[in-house]
Prior knowledge:
2 domains, Fumarylacetoacetate hydrolase, domain 2, binds magnesium ion, five-stranded mixed beta sheet, 5 helices, Vcp-like ATPase, Chain A, domain 2, twelve-stranded mixed beta sheet, globular, 14% helix, 19 strands, alpha+beta
Amino acid sequence: MKLARFLHDGVTHIGVVNEADGVVQPIAARSQGVDPMIAFIERQIEGEEPRSNGVALPLQEIRLLPPITAPSKNILCVGKNYRAHAFEFAGSGFDGSASRDEDAVPDAPIIFSKAPCSMAGAHDDILSPATMIESLDYEAELGVVIGKGGRAIPGEKAYDHVWGYTAINDVTARVVQSRHKQWLLGKSVDTFCPIGPWIVSADELDPEALEISCWVNRERRQHASTKDLIFDIPSIIEVISASMTLQTGDIIATGTPDGVGIGFDPPKFLREGDVVRVEITGIGALENRVLRMAPS
Ligand code: MG
């Protein structure tokens, strides 16, 4: 099942996407103030089937929104989780956690977060403040959406807690990351987390064999398989849930492969007008244009 949240005729819906027919079927959302997608996933875990609400709508007539807007906590992210990216980052001069090759690959998952206000829809613009536009970078990542919540989840049971998967672009302002010596501010800027285009339920994918790619305009910059993750999804869930209770609708960005802008010499940062495409096999694509935020 592919679950989308979208806008049609000024009304927000959630729905089941049928890509073959190019339509989305709106479904009943009884959210009562809770994030409607999280409420739906909770009911679905309890065995309730989706109930149609109105007629199917052509995908061309809707605007995709971030599938979930109010996770219980920040979007949890894994840093340096592909070997080749760990080396390119350590060599870039922007990595406060490692400057030597010997330290590049972490011994344990590096976990940080992005504020949920950074989320944007699959085709929304990435709006950069003028002060950040000289060092904007892209990071294509597989996103994990938690189904059944839990604390201290052992790795061997971790997949029981995954509802599905989505695509994420962990857009980053490198100068901010470098200046403030941490990753929150430069990654939590409004619109710096395109996510979607929808959530694909776990039964439809093998998360350990997905191809993940990123193009800037027509140039492919990133291409890898999720089998190359240093810390796999069960390890990540085990580590995070040892500290905090994971709840339905929590989102984990699993890290980006090599080929980010700072991996090039000189760096290939995003420029105003660029279109960034993040695509994951079996999930779909995000395509977002980079614009300079108008001064307010
Ligand atoms: Mg990242």
